[in-house]
């Protein structure tokens, strides 16, 4: 189990958001493991801040589903199980992203398409460097960009509510692809479908893409 002493101190000027960002990154990257107990005292000492921003940050992370607080037991890191991915996150993502991608099609300017191309290029660089964390982060960035382009505030709100847990399983599973460049290739298929503008075909590509990630993450791990 990871040691809290491995977390670097936070600058004095930073507050709740900095604490939340630091802990969120440690959780989604696996530095802090599921079941690990987090205490305000230990975290405030390690991060070099008072207990108030730590308390607020833990409350925020609980709302994001990354930690859970139990009466008399304190706060623990939550993992993302394959059961949750299959029965909750994958179905929610398919419904949400099929709708958002369809709505985004008529709103995709050349500038926005170029931005998506840039994200895919960053995926390819991360894959070539063997940087699974950066690869997963660019994966999240691509999907959030399209949801944002859809101009559907409710979709973006739902996406941001599940994004921390989606990011957690992206970062957990990114290193297990036999060929990391395949992730970028999958997103090129999504981008091609967006460019083509056939919404029925696009919905099929989106569903296949999301299910493919789940299938790949189920592969035996060595």
UniProtKB/TrEMBL annotation:
Q: SMART domains in the record, alphabetically?
A: FCD, HTH_GNTR
Q: Which UniProt keywords apply?
A: DNA-binding, Transcription, Transcription regulation
PROSITE patterns hit by this protein: HTH_GNTR
Q: Which domain of life is it from?
A: Bacteria
**Taxonomic source organism:** Microbacterium resistens
* Gene3D superfamilies attached to this UniProt entry: GntR ligand-binding domain-like (1.20.120.530), Winged helix-like DNA-binding domain superfamily/Winged helix DNA-binding domain (1.10.10.10)
What are the residue boundaries of the HTH gntR-type domain, all occurrences included? 13-80
Recorded hits in Pfam families, A to Z, give: FCD (PF07729), GntR (PF00392)
User: Do you know which SUPFAM superfamilies this protein is assigned to?
Assistant: GntR ligand-binding domain-like (SSF48008), Winged helix' DNA-binding domain (SSF46785)
Write the protein's name.
Answer: GntR family transcriptional regulator
PANTHER family assigned to the protein according to its UniProt record, in alphabetical order:
GNTR FAMILY REGULATORY PROTEIN, TRANSCRIPTIONAL REGULATOR, GNTR FAMILY
């Amino acid at each position: 189990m990871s040691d809290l002493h491995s977390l670097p101190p936070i600058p004095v000027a930073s507050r709740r958001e900095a604490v939340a960002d630091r802990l969120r990154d440690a959780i989604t990257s696996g530095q802090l493991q599921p079941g690990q107990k987090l205490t305000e005292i230990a975290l405030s000492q390690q991060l070099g801040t008072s207990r108030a921003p730590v308390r607020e940050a833990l409350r925020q992370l609980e709302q994001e589903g990354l930690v859970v607080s139990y009466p008399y037991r304190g706060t623990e890191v939550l993992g993302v199980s394959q059961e949750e991915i299959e029965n909750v996150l994958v179905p929610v993502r398919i419904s949400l992203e099929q709708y958002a991608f369809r709505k985004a099609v008529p709103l995709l300017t050349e500038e926005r398409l170029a931005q998506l191309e840039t994200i895919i290029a960053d995926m390819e660089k991360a894959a070539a460097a063997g940087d699974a964390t950066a690869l997963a982060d660019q994966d999240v960035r691509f999907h959030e960009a399209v949801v944002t382009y859809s101009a559907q505030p409710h979709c973006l709100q739902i996406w941001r509510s599940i994004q921390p847990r989606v990011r957690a399983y992206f970062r957990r599973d990114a290193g297990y692809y036999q060929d990391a460049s395949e992730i970028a290739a999958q997103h090129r298929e999504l981008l091609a479908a967006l460019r083509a503008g056939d919404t029925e075909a696009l919905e099929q590509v989106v569903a296949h893409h999301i299910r493919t990630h789940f299938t790949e993450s189920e592969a035996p791990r060595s």
